[in-house]
């Protein structure tokens, strides 16, 4: 879904009059990072992270992480003197704890991703406006999505500029 939203944004950019894109410099942008690093996105994500369900899951995740780390240390310390049966039992406990940790981590990630997806969709019109403005003011002739580029020196990136403009627009509204 994130890729679909980004594709729609790219299509909006592609529909910019060709005269604007005919000449100029090359730039790259990471739209997802630009949006998620904006003040509005950080406030929304902080809101999700402060919800009781999220906090409970985070506490459980931290507890499971500590338990898993402890089990790993104990296994590494004692493995040489354990019988094969004890090693197998310890490995099963480790695998079970790892599965529990991954499950809770997945719940946390899903909550943040759902919020991120909603933000991408909500901020899409504002992002298109910001991109059009930057294309015009920066004289950008070719703008590429960062995820589609194998290599680009940091000087080609306008991601921070997009985030700054989003913050300015959000503050003005």
UniProtKB/TrEMBL annotation:
Presence of keyword Signal: yes
InterPro entries: Chaperone_Skp, Skp_dom_sf
Alphabetized SMART domains for the sequence: OmpH (SM00935)
Coiled-coil regions listed in the entry: 31-85
Keyword Signal listed: yes
Record's signal peptide: 1-22
Keywords (A to Z) from UniProt: Coiled coil, Signal
Assigned protein family: Belongs to the Skp family.
Protein name: OmpH family outer membrane protein
Source species of the chain: Congregibacter variabilis
High-level lineage: Bacteria, Pseudomonadati, Pseudomonadota, Gammaproteobacteria, Cellvibrionales
